[in-house]
Fold:
Amino acid sequence: MTTQQETRPSAAAKPVRWAADAVATLREGARLRLDYSARSLWRVDRLIEGIRAEQAPYAALETVLRGLGAYAGEVIVRQAGAEWWSAGGDHWVRTPDGRLWDPIEEARRCFAGDGSLRLLCRQATGG
Structure:
């Protein structure tokens, strides 16, 4: 196996933790239950839309958006049999067809009003 293939499991460590933290925080703070289903991403998109409407500063939300993007990535991993990849501190999801997806950046785009985690998941999973 190549070095790149050997490091795949460790590539998932951070985003899996970020996703789990986001799920726990939303369950405790907002009473929002996320179940890692593609359908749950509709609620995440709406949540980000609501935060944007409150005009919260991006700097205050950077960690939250990273967690929500990681959550969307975990949904794709579980739905499509994909895996996390990492390089230079960035994390992507690689679907079995070899395409790379950036759900963390997509969460940032959602906050800017130009993205959708639900649609990203639909495209990545072919659903």
